[in-house]
Amino acid sequence: MMNCYQFKNSISSFIEEDINFNRRKQFEEHLQNCPACKLLHARILQNKKRLASLPKVTVSDHFMHNLQNKILADRNARIRQSLRKDFSFKQIPSFAYGFAAALLAVVAVFFILQSQGTDSTNPGVPPVVQEQIDQQPPVAQPTVRQPVKNVLVADDTRNQIKPDSSDKDVQDDDQPVQHNPDFQDKIRTVKKQY
Amino acid sequence: MEDRYKITDEELIARFQAGDESAFEEIVHRYSGRLMNFAYRFLLDREEAEDVVQDTFLKVYQNRNAYKEIAKFSTWIYTITGNLAKTILRKRRNRQLFFFSRLGPEEKDIEFPSTDKLPESTFEEKYDDKMVQKAIVKLPEQFRTAIILRDIQDLSYEEISNIIDAPLGTVKSRINRARLRLQEELESLKGK
Questions:
Q1: Contacts of A61 (CB under 8 A, 6+ apart)
Q2: Could you tell me which of A36, A156, A52, A38 has the C-alpha nearest to residue B149?
Q3: Confidence label for A132 from pLDDT (cuts 50, 70 and 90)
Q4: Residues contacting A82, CB < 8 A, separation 6+
Q5: Residue B175: closest C-alpha in chain A
Q6: How far is CA A31 from CA A8, A35, B154, B172, in A?
Q7: Average pLDDT over chain A, rounded to an integer
């Protein structure tokens, strides 16, 4: 047996005949036994008819003219937009400004750090290590090789061995001089001859 | 002209997509009345309803290639109108000028369509229509859409389901509840 709640819950299915035979029988039985639901059913049917017969609203006479104007205006606006090719800051998306600022900051920080690094004597050496290096006693300097004086040298060897004729060459002699073994043999030969 | 009516809506939009501007005019001719009724019953304002219908056709014109023949053309165009009408309602709410929620139904008369084109309408019929329209506008948005599309526009449940993008069961339930609620609103209006 159908109750009022079930009836109300499915009244549209009954009105639209969207139910099976057995269900329909239950609706009809309830309608016969419940005056309130019978009244509700009648009212809803009446409203449905009333809604279907509401006066039709038509568009105004200048509807088509206005629509054509709107379409034309829209088309012109699009053409104008596509023709506007000159640069404008408004065209740049806002995130691009943020990205540029961040990039600028990174570059600035990089240069600052680099300039600080070149100021120190040993770049990259921690201060503690630098301190220990400074405290170490100076390492004994290797004996300075006495320059060979007034030695006759073959023409080919002038670039390698220069006679110690001035003080300025002393500094150069501190550096170990690399001699070509062939030329050293030649020098020894010349020494023996004289 | 008779031949043109043999062409389906889907064929018309296909012609329009191919560049036939006269097909667009035919679409406007076929749908302007139906959409105007829908928008007007939803908004209860003739000017706003006409704007909504014009914007609907403008969108169809601009986005003609967005329509794919997987759905009925009528469903697509009703969806556009429904969305635009809802946008108008939202704007109204934001401006707090929606007179039914603010002033109450008896404090301001409802704008009703001109009776010039309806000489057969009697005073009694108009009064009933007025009450019905008042009751419709008092319905929640989703019930209003459902009942207008079903009982005024006479669309099928399947079409409504596609337009409001809700399952068929939800559509049936909404229509049932909308009818019951409409009856309640009419009872309360008659009692006042």
A1: none
A2: A52
A3: confident
A4: none
A5: A12
A6: 11, 7, 26, 21
A7: 77
Angle subtended at Cα B151 by Cα B144 and Cα B142, rounded to the nearest 5 degrees: 20
Say how far residue A124 (Cα) sits from the centre of its chain.
30
B41, amino acid identity: R
pTM for this model (two decimals)? 0.63
Beta-carbon contacts of residue B75 (< 8 Å; ≥ 6 apart): B159, B162, B163
pLDDT band of residue A49 (cuts 50, 70, 90) is very high
Please state, in angstroms and rounded to a whole number, the distance separating the CA atoms of residues B39 and B79: 11
A57 contacts B37? CB cut-off 8 A = yes
Please judge whether A67 and B151 are an interchain contact, meaning their C-beta atoms are less than 8 angstroms apart.
no
Taking a C-beta distance cutoff of 8 angstroms, is the pair B13, B67 a contact? yes
Do the beta carbons of residue B27 and residue B16 sit within 8 Å? Answer: yes
Q: Do B33 and A56 touch (CB under 8 A)?
A: yes
- Which of A55-64, A91-100, A106-115, B35-44 is predicted with the least confidence, judged by mean pLDDT? A91-100
Cα–Cα distance for residue pair A52/B149, rounded to 1 Å:
11
Tokens of residue A114, six digits: 């680099």
* Integer Cα distance of B190 and B187 in angstroms: 5
| Rounded distance between C-alpha atoms, residue B8 and residue B189, angstroms | 43
Does this complex have an ipTM over 0.95?
no
Q: Are B35 and B78 in contact (CB under 8 A)?
A: yes
Q: Where are the alpha helices (DSSP H) in B44-152?
A: 46-62, 73-95, 99-102, 123-138, 141-147
The tokens of A151 are what?
């030695």
What is the spatial distance between Cα B175 and Cα A13, in angstroms, rounded to a whole number? Answer: 10
For A68, the closest chain B residue by CA position comes to B58
- Distance (Å) of CA A95 to CA A16, A107, A155, B5: 57, 19, 72, 53
**Residue B109 C-alpha, separation from nearest chain A C-alpha, in angstroms:** 18
Give B7's contacts (C-beta < 8 A, 6+ positions apart): B15, B26
Q: Is B145 exposed, middle or buried (0-12, 13-18, 19+ CB in 10 A)?
A: buried
The whole-number average pLDDT for the span B64-91 is: 90
